[in-house]
């Protein structure tokens, strides 16, 4: 079957933002205005559990009023197919944004008009930079008290380093917000009401001043400056094309078509970030945002394909988004429920049909494509084939996990994987009853397979099952989802921190391994210098043997021993970070030396050297931002200091005060309870892992005691 629609009429976009900026509300309006659904459900109407928005369909999402897992929906606008992924804004679920951005061609970044740029917006922006995803900005909630378009734009420029292009400016704010001026089209859109079907008037820019009368000085200034702002937007956009810019300079002329092409060129290349505004809740600006998605964000492949890599991750080529090529796809998400496994894939090239056999290149296993579905959040529609540029789900794939490459077996290719954050917090998990042990293990395995930011381990000493994740909420939601989706009840132990260890000083140590017990013995001697390295260096092994003091064939055994041993340090068995091991000398015996003997010597040398170096215990330090009313700021700062934290910045977030700082994770458990009582429920906070830092010597024993309980 031939392609039904040219690739240029497809848009794969994600909606990303900080928590509570209005992503899900915006997605609901997008689906309504594109005719995909006939009524709008608002997020605050779902907490009684009776209704749900299209993309927040999990019980945990309805109860908490937040997005937990990204959900895909497909819709149409002006002849274009738009595949939308609504992503979470909570820092504990950054993995969902990470894997969605990996396979999307463009993103709409939603900002709260009052709060502006928030911590999770910065994290998501960095991820979009990492995956080279073009984006447009949508400043939402312009109807709220304290909304400031100028404050948001300044934050996008300064905190995100974006080259902002104003395509719209608001007409009014707070309860006077009536629409926006379109600087590209040269008109204003003035709504006649807040209803979802309310029409708007289209007014030429030079007539707007006569139609509006705002009380706020800043709103009057936006209207007074419209002509100047439009001129600036046109000049900066046309600068993307030399011929168009020259024509503008020489004759002052340009055409609308060229202007839009220039903005698109700047947006797709990442040189410009177009900015729009509106109020999704009040149904103003969403249709214009959809126009911007079609006009400015790239179609699949317009911004390049995906890198092909070798087994070590080195780039060896590029796979363009074309039908006439071997089938290649990237699995970016796996969902398990009582009905089976759904493997979400982005098709990068070729055509995949029902019944085809694909090779999972990552794992070297073949997978048969039984059913292919187009997903509408928690509903699905069977389809017979998918082509380059499509996003779909394969049903009941047994071997494929997040990040795996699927390929035509005759033309295998490994596609560049996504990078996942390491977990920072762990809890013990136990079944409610002894009969549920096997069921719990199976359910946990399914949850970990679906979410690469979770890790599952068994504590060798206690025999406990340990689940590691990105935060308390992340682990709590995982256990809750096991109950609701897989029917397995489990109890969660007290959270534990993932500490690390490091060498305290440089140590030069010689270890001799000698064993004689009749017959051939074992002999190996190694001399290694262990040096602490800067944070983020990792473990580096340096072979500095000269003159054959240790035969070449035994050196990999020493390196392997040190790498393995570094996973368990000598203070409390935590992984040892950031050191260099320099193998400088050694001795061997012609008969008694072997790779095993040198491995044993390497291990013992590491253990003794780390103990001798006065090792340091490192703890994860979180970047914290608290937003609250100014009256409570003193209590919040005092508490941060009590928790061994430091305050790095204070400022304003709209009408509220904000404080940023760094606090050890070990001191942050249950912080939400303190904040609620200290601010009478008005304070909010976000927290994400920032770096590891040495634990003060006088607190090591106390912390280890606390962890052991």
UniProtKB/TrEMBL annotation:
<protein>
    <recommendedName>
        <fullName>Elongation factor G</fullName>
    </recommendedName>
</protein>
<dbReference type="InterPro" id="IPR041095">
    <property type="entry name" value="EFG_II"/>
</dbReference>
<feature type="domain" description="Tr-type G">
    <location>
        <begin position="8"/>
        <end position="302"/>
    </location>
</feature>
<dbReference type="InterPro" id="IPR027417">
    <property type="entry name" value="P-loop_NTPase"/>
</dbReference>
<feature type="binding site">
    <location>
        <begin position="140"/>
        <end position="143"/>
    </location>
    <ligand>
        <name>GTP</name>
    </ligand>
</feature>
<dbReference type="InterPro" id="IPR000795">
    <property type="entry name" value="T_Tr_GTP-bd_dom"/>
</dbReference>
<dbReference type="InterPro" id="IPR009000">
    <property type="entry name" value="Transl_B-barrel_sf"/>
</dbReference>
<dbReference type="InterPro" id="IPR035647">
    <property type="entry name" value="EFG_III/V"/>
</dbReference>
<dbReference type="InterPro" id="IPR005225">
    <property type="entry name" value="Small_GTP-bd"/>
</dbReference>
<dbReference type="InterPro" id="IPR005517">
    <property type="entry name" value="Transl_elong_EFG/EF2_IV"/>
</dbReference>
<dbReference type="Pfam" id="PF14492">
    <property type="entry name" value="EFG_III"/>
</dbReference>
<dbReference type="InterPro" id="IPR000640">
    <property type="entry name" value="EFG_V-like"/>
</dbReference>
<dbReference type="Pfam" id="PF03764">
    <property type="entry name" value="EFG_IV"/>
</dbReference>
<keyword id="KW-0963">Cytoplasm</keyword>
<keyword id="KW-0342">GTP-binding</keyword>
<dbReference type="Pfam" id="PF00679">
    <property type="entry name" value="EFG_C"/>
</dbReference>
<dbReference type="GO" id="GO:0003746">
    <property type="term" value="F:translation elongation factor activity"/>
</dbReference>
<comment type="similarity">
    <text>Belongs to the TRAFAC class translation factor GTPase superfamily. Classic translation factor GTPase family. EF-G/EF-2 subfamily.</text>
</comment>
<dbReference type="InterPro" id="IPR020568">
    <property type="entry name" value="Ribosomal_Su5_D2-typ_SF"/>
</dbReference>
<feature type="binding site">
    <location>
        <begin position="86"/>
        <end position="90"/>
    </location>
    <ligand>
        <name>GTP</name>
    </ligand>
</feature>
<dbReference type="Pfam" id="PF03144">
    <property type="entry name" value="GTP_EFTU_D2"/>
</dbReference>
<dbReference type="GO" id="GO:0032790">
    <property type="term" value="P:ribosome disassembly"/>
</dbReference>
<dbReference type="Pfam" id="PF00009">
    <property type="entry name" value="GTP_EFTU"/>
</dbReference>
<dbReference type="InterPro" id="IPR004161">
    <property type="entry name" value="EFTu-like_2"/>
</dbReference>
<dbReference type="GO" id="GO:0005737">
    <property type="term" value="C:cytoplasm"/>
</dbReference>
<dbReference type="GO" id="GO:0005525">
    <property type="term" value="F:GTP binding"/>
</dbReference>
<dbReference type="InterPro" id="IPR009022">
    <property type="entry name" value="EFG_III"/>
</dbReference>
<dbReference type="GO" id="GO:0097216">
    <property type="term" value="F:guanosine tetraphosphate binding"/>
</dbReference>
<keyword id="KW-0547">Nucleotide-binding</keyword>
<comment type="function">
    <text>Catalyzes the GTP-dependent ribosomal translocation step during translation elongation. During this step, the ribosome changes from the pre-translocational (PRE) to the post-translocational (POST) state as the newly formed A-site-bound peptidyl-tRNA and P-site-bound deacylated tRNA move to the P and E sites, respectively. Catalyzes the coordinated movement of the two tRNA molecules, the mRNA and conformational changes in the ribosome.</text>
</comment>
<dbReference type="InterPro" id="IPR047872">
    <property type="entry name" value="EFG_IV"/>
</dbReference>
<dbReference type="InterPro" id="IPR031157">
    <property type="entry name" value="G_TR_CS"/>
</dbReference>
<feature type="binding site">
    <location>
        <begin position="17"/>
        <end position="24"/>
    </location>
    <ligand>
        <name>GTP</name>
    </ligand>
</feature>
<keyword id="KW-0251">Elongation factor</keyword>
<keyword id="KW-0648">Protein biosynthesis</keyword>
<dbReference type="GO" id="GO:0003924">
    <property type="term" value="F:GTPase activity"/>
</dbReference>
<dbReference type="InterPro" id="IPR035649">
    <property type="entry name" value="EFG_V"/>
</dbReference>
<dbReference type="InterPro" id="IPR014721">
    <property type="entry name" value="Ribsml_uS5_D2-typ_fold_subgr"/>
</dbReference>
<dbReference type="InterPro" id="IPR004540">
    <property type="entry name" value="Transl_elong_EFG/EF2"/>
</dbReference>
């Amino acid at each position: 079957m031939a392609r039904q629609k040219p690739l240029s009429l497809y848009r794969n976009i994600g909606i990303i933002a900080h928590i509570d900026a209005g992503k899900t509300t915006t997605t609901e309006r997008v689906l309504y205005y594109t005719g995909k659904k006939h009524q709008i459900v608002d997020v605050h109407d779902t907490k009684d559990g009776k209704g749900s928005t299209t993309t927040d369909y999990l019980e945990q999402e309805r109860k908490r009023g937040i997005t937990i897992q990204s959900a895909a929906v497909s819709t149409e606008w002006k002849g274009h197919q738009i595949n939308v992924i609504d992503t979470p804004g909570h820092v504990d679920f950054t993995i969902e944004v990470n894997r969605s951005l990996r396979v999307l061609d463009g993103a709409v970044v939603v900002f709260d008009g009052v709060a502006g740029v928030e911590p999770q917006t910065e994290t998501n922006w960095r991820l979009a930079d990492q995956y080279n995803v073009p984006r447009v900005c949508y400043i939402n909630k312009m109807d709220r008290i304290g909304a400031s378009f100028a404050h948001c734009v300044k934050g996008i420029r300064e905190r995100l380093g974006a080259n902002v292009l104003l395509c719209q400016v608001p007409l009014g704010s707070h309860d006077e917000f009536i629409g926006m001026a379109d600087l590209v089209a040269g008109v204003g859109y003035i709504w006649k009401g807040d209803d979802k079907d309310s029409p708007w008037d289209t007014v030429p820019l030079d007539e707007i001043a006569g139609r509006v009368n705002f009380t706020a000085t800043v709103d009057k200034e936006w209207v007074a400056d419209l002509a100047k702002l439009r001129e600036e937007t046109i000049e900066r956009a046309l600068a993307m094309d030399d011929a168009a810019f020259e024509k503008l300079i020489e004759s002052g002329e340009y055409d609308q078509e060229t202007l839009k092409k220039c903005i698109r060129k700047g947006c797709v290349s990442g040189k410009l970030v177009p900015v729009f505004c509106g109020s999704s809740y009040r149904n103003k600006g969403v249709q214009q945002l959809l126009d911007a998605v079609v006009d400015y964000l790239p179609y699949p492949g317009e911004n390049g394909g995906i890198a092909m890599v070798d087994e070590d991750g080195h780039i060896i080529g590029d796979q363009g988004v074309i039908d006439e090529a071997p089938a290649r796809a990237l699995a970016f998400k796996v969902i398990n429920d009582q009905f089976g496994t759904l493997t979400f894939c982005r098709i990068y090239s070729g055509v995949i049909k029902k019944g085809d056999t694909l090779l999972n290149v990552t794992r070297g296993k073949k997978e048969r494509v039984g059913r292919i579905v187009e997903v509408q959040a928690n509903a699905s529609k069977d389809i017979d084939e998918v082509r380059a540029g499509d996003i779909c789900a394969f049903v009941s794939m047994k071997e494929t996990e997040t990040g795996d490459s699927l390929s035509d077996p005759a033309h295998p290719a490994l596609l560049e994987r996504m990078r996942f954050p390491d977990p920072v917090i762990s809890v013990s998990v136990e079944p409610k009853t002894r009969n549920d042990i096997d069921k719990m293990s199976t359910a946990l395995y399914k949850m970990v397979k679906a979410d690469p930011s979770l890790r599952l381990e068994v504590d060798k000493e206690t025999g406990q099952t340990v689940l590691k994740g990105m935060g308390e909420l992340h682990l709590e939601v995982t256990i809750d989802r096991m109950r609701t989706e897989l029917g397995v009840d489990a109890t969660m132990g007290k959270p534990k921190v993932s500490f690390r260890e490091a060498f305290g000083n440089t140590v030069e140590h010689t270890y001799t391994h000698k064993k004689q017990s009749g017959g051939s013995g074992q002999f190996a001697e190694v001399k290694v210098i262990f040096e602490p390295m800067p944070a983020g260096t990792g473990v580096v092994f340096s072979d500095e043997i000269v003159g054959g003091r240790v035969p070449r064939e035994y050196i990999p055994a020493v390196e392997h021993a040190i790498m393995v041993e570094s996973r368990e340090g000598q203070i409390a068995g935590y992984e040892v970070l950031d050191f260099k091991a320099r193998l400088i000398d050694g001795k061997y015996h012609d008969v008694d030396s072997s790779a095993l003997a040198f491995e044993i010597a390497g291990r013992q040398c590491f253990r003794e050297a780390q103990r001798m170096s006065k090792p340091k215990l490192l703890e994860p330090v979180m970047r914290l931002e608290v937003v609250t009313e100014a009256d409570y700021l003193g209590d919040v700062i005092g508490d941060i200091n009590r928790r061994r934290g430091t305050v790095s910045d204070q400022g304003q977030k709209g009408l509220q005060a904000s404080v940023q700082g760094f606090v050890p994770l070990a001191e942050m458990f249950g912080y939400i309870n303190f904040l609620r009582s200290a601010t009478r429920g008005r304070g909010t906070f976000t927290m994400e892992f920032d770096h590891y830092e040495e634990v003060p010597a006088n607190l090591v024993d106390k912390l280890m005691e606390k962890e052991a309980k």
